[in-house]
């Protein structure tokens, strides 16, 4: 037994979710040897659907289930099969009641996987081409990442009818934030909520790069084992990375239970080979979404993925433009005749609007002028004294002031991030911009406080603990300053210095 002190987030990373040896019960699975084309494993739940128990199927081929026309289709597909799924609608021989099934076929791990799903109820007409065409047009025309994500969320919700469709974006530290969503009007929004990196462990992220879609139509399911557990000669269960019926981690099922979610569908958003985020769909009651509709949603996910880079560039361009415009406006305000502290502080746009920051301050002539959310005056005075003593550079920046100066911990809420330009050789003269501590700006998605979860004797962190661990990582840090922000600050400093020089020269001329 592990002690509480042994619990680490890496426990989650070690769960072998690709080889559970179990499937979800809404369909059935047959694994065929890719060479002999004989069934080597089946899911234990085949009998009610196929009229045959596993022992009757093992060693046989698909001719037991399909008539000649369907068999010919499978034969034609067989050599072309890869990890990418192919669909075959079939009528199963000898099955009473609902005989129509969709067979989803792919090849992986030496096997050809045949996953059978009952045909979902009619009414879900997946191929509304004009609607899809309209969506594509809107996605292309969107001006920003957020707008693009909002359109995608609304479309996926309209197509599938999920209670909630959220777009979840990862930060560089792998935590994530809900940046767009479409929800049933009576539900509480998740927009802006942040979740720790450990909610989606590393091996799951790696798998979601290979397989674009996960589907759990009923999160309260009883998993169904494979028969036999291991195929002859195998030392581990087969690799279900690409199997849609793969039974998911029990920890994740508990997580869904805590979220109040009975059905989910998740689509990867991949930007230049890296997992950028996910489209996550939730429903309060079980929900079966047809294969075709899932494919259509995947199509939207892939389209969004392709557009991310250009929309991000668009976002960056417009922020740069914003900074440039404010810089130019400040230049106009700070002229030879002005008392520049008044101009900088009181006219709009103010210093505060120039950058994405929480607050700003001008320290000049023994006075401190504060804008927005800032430390108080004595705290700023202490910061300025520290800068005078420790910083020789005209431009100073940090995304973690308390880590540079532990005595500065008291201002971490408003000023974990600092960008400072010195205004003169004289001590104490600065313009400062402040960024708040990330933990302060983050709204955590609160969940039930839970004890550690035991799964097969392993100890896992509960979601609440994983948040605490993440919080420790980002404590006393702010969003980093970008290089073009530093350049813009340097230009403001240069301009003020030029103006003051001119003013000084004018005064000298006047005196002589
Ligand atoms: C998987 N966790 C996931 C997945 C999501 C999330 C989207 C992918 C599986 C799926 O398709 O449902 C998390 N879902 C979220 C988040 C939002 C959301 C953040 O909708 C926000 C909007 N989870 C934990 C902890 C562990 C953990 C502490 O919170 C580990 C101890 C594990 N999460 C975990 C595992 C998986 C997972 C193991 C993989 C499930 C699988 O595919 O088998």
Describe the secondary-structure layout.
Elements: H1 10-14, E1 22-23, E2 28-33, E3 39-43, H2 46-50, H3 54-57, H4 68-77, E4 86-91, E5 100-108, E6 111-118, H5 129-141, H6 145-160, E7 164-170, E8 176-183, E9 193-195, H7 202-210, E10 213-216, E11 224-227, H8 250-259, E12 263-271, E13 274-283, H9 291-333, H10 340-346, H11 351-354, E14 359-364, E15 367-372, H12 377-390, E16 395-398, H13 401-404, H14 412-415, E17 417-422, E18 430-435, H15 438-441, E19 443-444, E20 453-455, E21 458-460, H16 463-474, H17 483-511
Parallel strand pairs: 9-19
Antiparallel strand pairs: 1-11, 2-3, 2-6, 3-11, 4-5, 5-6, 7-8, 7-13, 8-9, 10-12, 12-13, 14-15, 14-18, 16-17, 17-18, 20-21
Bound molecules: biliverdine IX alpha.
Features:
512 residues; alpha+beta; Beta-Lactamase; seven-stranded mixed sheet; 17 helices; 38% helix; elongated; binds biliverdine IX alpha
What does this structure look like?
The protein has 512 residues and is an alpha+beta fold. It has 3 domains: 10-19 and 122-314, GAF domain (Beta-Lactamase, 2-Layer Sandwich), CATH 3.30.450.40; 20-118, PAS domain (Beta-Lactamase), CATH 3.30.450.20; 334-440 and 471-511, PHY domain (Beta-Lactamase, 2-Layer Sandwich), CATH 3.30.450. The protein contains 17 helices and 21 strands. The chain has helices at residues 10-14, 46-50, 54-57, 68-77, 129-141, 145-160, 202-210, 250-259, 291-333, 340-346, 351-354, 377-390, 401-404, 412-415, 438-441, 463-474, 483-511; strands at 22-23, 28-33, 39-43, 86-91, 100-108, 111-118, 164-170, 176-183, 193-195, 213-216, 224-227, 263-271, 274-283, 359-364, 367-372, 395-398, 417-422, 430-435, 443-444, 453-455, 458-460. Strands 1-11-3-2-6-5-4 form a 7-stranded antiparallel beta sheet. Helix 5 (129-141) packs antiparallel against helix 6. The radius of gyration is 30 Å and the shape is elongated. The model is unreliable at 1-7 and 447-455 (pLDDT under 50). The structure holds biliverdine IX alpha. Biliverdine IX alpha is lined by residues 12, 15, 17, 166, 168, 176, 178, 190, 195, 198-201, 204, 214, 248-249, 251-252, 255, 264, 266, 278, 280, 460-461, 463, 466.
